[in-house]
Queue: 4 jobs
Job 1
Amino acid sequence: MTYGGHAPLRDLPEKDASDAAASELADLRRQVEELRQAVRARDDFIAIAAHELRNPMAPILGVAELALTTARKAKGTCPPRIVVLLERMQRLVQEYVGRAERLLHVSRIGAGNLRLEPSSLDLSALVLSVAQRYEVVAARGRSRLDLDVQAGVIAVIDQLAVEEIIENLLSNALKFGIGSPVTLRLRSNGQSAQLDVQDHGIGVSADQQARLFGRFEQVVAQHGGVGFGIGLWVADRLVTAMGGRIAVSSRLGEGSTFTVAFPLAPPEPDRMTHEPASG
């Protein structure tokens, strides 16, 4: 029997079998190198695209924020509706910039260049601020957003990283739990903080849970949503870089709970960078 148009190595003379094995090994090495180059080209494209998407929006966001500040100061002469529209514009631009930042995180994690910049922040206020951005999304999806946030939790964290983690988990919960309540909970024991995002939607099967934090993985069998498929992968890498952990508990038809736990103080300096991702 032949395979791929070639006789099995065991049926070939010793020298011919050795030559065939060497040729196959050379082909495999060439294919591996081509795949590595393709991955590098992909990561380079993502980084360039993220910069091109983000940079033009920075001045637009600045103008929107200036216009909003001006409108708020002109209380008697500026119609309230204008303030509302400018606030909405500010949120939309911030969300757009956030998507570009997510792509940048992907390229930096892949290249091993992610470096967090922790500072002392009111984590409770940060969680509530991010949740406020999703009130409109929750209302549009007929989902009640329940907040159970312990006040006064102070942590030395990277603000952008934590915002992205919360945004990824909230957006997933509202997408896959559409029409049902979503709970955002924050608790601290003085040493670490625990963030829970719970929905009562479609849930995730056991085999999908094992792959959920992989790169470009999506739960598409039960949902028609689209996206990069990198949100949970990025969240997992960011949590790990902060010395924390992320886990999911879920049952099909009963919803999911994502739990993030991380220390209130940053890990050792060498933990604040991330090794290159495989694949």
Note: Residues 1-111 form a domain with the Helix Hairpins fold (CATH 1.10.287).
Job 2
Amino acid sequence: MNAPMSPAIRAALWMIGSILAFSAMAIAAKQIGTRHDSFEIMTVRSAVGFALVLALATATGRLPEINARNLRGHALRNIIHFTGQNLWFWALTMIPLAQLFAIEFTAPLWVVLLAALLLAERLTPTRLIAAALGFAGVLIVAHPDIANLNPGVLAAAAAAFCFATTNVVTKKLTAGLSILCILFWLTLMQFCFGLIAALWDGVFHLPTAATLPWLCVIGLAGVTAHYCVTAALKLAPASYVMPLDFLRLPLIAAVGALLYAEPLDPYVILGAVVIFAGIWLNIRTEIRPKRHTAAITPP
């Protein structure tokens, strides 16, 4: 009989799903960025996501899982994420995909530090080394020009911190709430936030025949990505789960080169190797059989 799959490996598989979904969302958003602003994209994305969550909950008989417990936590998570997501969509129109994702991938480094401060997760030497290798790989890929930073770079950096904080708050929410409940409030709250912000100037560009399919892709990919990330966070510590997201960088760099003629230089390959080294170190340590000696952890 085959041994059951470890939680660490299952979490890694969920993160692969999120990587594919987030990459699909970036491609779709790139296609319609000139027609819809970030608030309009967030509104339609959240509406599609809300419909999908309700359909899934109804079809599987899991509507009772959706409740109003910890609304303050949901609100905090979604305000932070809404801010970060709009900064990310804005940066997407201003800098290359590989650079945007490289800067965004400072988020796992923040997660490792914030998880130790807010979730009492152990800040082990392996997790620190894995985060440092990932961050070093990001710097190699991006090799940013500090003297000539543009607003897109600053927006991407701010989005990265927002995403890190969102993932830490999500980890706290998973302790007492189901994934469907978290996604229900995610899509509902962000639809309201997006609609208010989109109508603030009195102009709302309705989807066209050309943009509607891409908006649906964004909605489907968005809810899929968040489902995968939340499922991974239920299975393993945030400081283990989030560095896996570094794998999205070489993938999106290749997409940018193939679809948008964005230059693929040797720095991307070298940085990807360094990133993968950090991820493999973290995964190998996490799935290694634990010794029977008890570790002393803080209460």
Note: The chain has twelve helices and no strands.
Job 3
Amino acid sequence: MSDDDWREVMWGCERWLTARRPTTAAQLLRAAADALPPQARPDAYGEGEIVEGFERRLAALLGMEAAALMPSGTMAQQIALRIHCARRGVDTVAFHPTCHLEVHEHAGYAHLHGLRAELVGHRDRLIELADLEALHAPIGALLLELPQREIGGRLPDWDALAAQTEWAHAHGAAAHLDGARIWESTPYYERSHEAIAALFDTVYVSLYKGLGGLAGCVLAGPDETIAHARVWRRRHGGTLFHLYPLAAAALRGLDTLVAQMPVFLEHARALAAALSELPGVQVVPDPPQTPLFHLHLRGDRESLQRRALALARETGVWLFGELGPTVVPGVHRLELNVGEAALEIAPRECRELLGAVLAG
């Protein structure tokens, strides 16, 4: 079955085990427009109160001096790492083997910026301080991702996180936060966004992963760094004629979804507890540390996907589409992002539905 066929079934459902409901292009654009005052004027290449006010708001939320709106996290993080490394005269950055830069960006950091990667730790666990202490070559920047998406939305404990950023600074390196999902991380730490960001020199946050926006991100940090980043944004072709839709579409998420992250985490843990009772299901991590976690499902991949699709058609409840691989043969990964839409599915009902898929 093609991707279009999968999407057609998903769009026909009434409830979804996802962070948000599928929305049409018109709905996304209307939501962005509705978030703005009627007389709001669009920016010109990022200059204008919608964008500049939004940047000030994000900078204040993260406790940083400045912030710059950018079209993508890929652009923002490569720029941040280049600036940090150039200042230190070192072209090596350290990050986890499943870092987005390594897995999803075709080595853009190397091809575009001449940077080299030092992969730290094992791909199936979090970075530990001992992994950093084992590094011998100097690095210009250490990138840490909170939470670590590819291994189940895991987070280091607070003391471990602080020790790792302190190690970076003690060794003359910058500490950069891939905080695409920083909104989902705060309930676990029971600390503010500002407190988490204070450990780092620069922070990238997504405007759509947890906020439900159109696209884009913000890079925050010291005034001088962000001014330099704006130059690189233009060099990358990222200073679009109008950037305001990216800011406008994220406003609702900032106003309503960020405050609900503890609720989403509570529901994620309730779902995980119910689903862990099913034979052939493993929760990773157990219990979840964020509203994003993984289920490892045992069975034939094609059969599981086919039965999930049939159940969606029959019940109007979308559980999942494609399953990802794990290192264990016959065990497949399902990533769950729990948000507003998932709140409508009770843990007991979810267990019954997934149980039916597993039972065949």
Note: The chain has two domains: 3-22+259-359, 25-255.
Job 4
Amino acid sequence: MDQELLSDTFVDLADTLVDDFDVIDFLHLLSDRAVQLLGASAAGVMLADPRGQMRLVAASSEAVRLLEIFQLEGEEGPCLEVIRTGQPVIEPDLRHAQQRWPRFTPAALQAGFTTVHALPMRLRDQVLGGLNLFSEQAGPFDPANMRIGQALADTATIGLLHERNLRRVEVVSEQLQAALTSRVVLEQAKGKLAERLGLDMDTAFTTLRRYAREHNLRLSDLAQNFINSDPADFPDLLNQPSR
């Protein structure tokens, strides 16, 4: 095994903090390096989307891409099994797996693959997906290589979760900033309406809110438009009863 390539792969899979992080490119890196390092003929990566549906996201060859799509469409096969169970799925000779996967097995053999070893992409009880390794030769993969393969899958999983959490924090931060900005705008609109109609601030807020609801408007959008426009452009708002 190329130790320098192995070290570089772990570094690459752990580095998800770059500004232009591309999850598809990241997972293609995982599938390509799995082939280069683990003695596999081909590899594919499936992930569960937010609704729990399995999606093919990377494949090292067209043959395995088509096989993985067939696996999804047939709702049967090693990667679906590994994602359901969170445990490795090993089939050293697909010629004897007809009963296990009656639709997938003939398709895999026709594609030229005789062995499959699916590795879970998981962190504790959270299963994100699976790394499928295929070989054209019958017989199990080398156990030492499979331990490295699982370590690669685990590292990729941690990287994905870290990136997801980072995005979630950014989204929450953006939402908070938007809320704070909207609040400032709303206070300005309340003050403008209160001054115009001689209302207290609570009544001005009630008036704005009622108008927004009656006209199916977002309160923040109404407030922004009101402070940026001539009050005369809102005759209905200025003539609302201040109840």
Note: The longest strand covers residues 126-135.
